[in-house]
Amino acid sequence: MGDRPVVSALAVFGGAPLFFYLLHLTVLRLLYHGAFALWGPTQGAVFAVSDYVWVLVWYAALIVPLYFPTAWFSRLKASRRDIAWLKYL
Prior knowledge:
By secondary structure, this protein is mainly α. 74% of the residues lie in helices and 0% in strands. It starts with a helix and ends in a 10-residue tail after the last helix.
């Protein structure tokens, strides 16, 4: 029963999966354009293990800030069953 907070936190993402998907794609796109503006294009470097570690670091860093808008939308979706299009997000 000690895993209940983890399960409830993951249920938030399950309550609004398309919203989370669209939100995280938007955030990643903004981060990409910001990095491109600051550092320019890469030279086509081969994807190395150290690069994947940074992917995991960004994943862990973005889960927390993306949780709050997803939790808000999940609550909105659950409370406003009268808005039909919300069920698709």
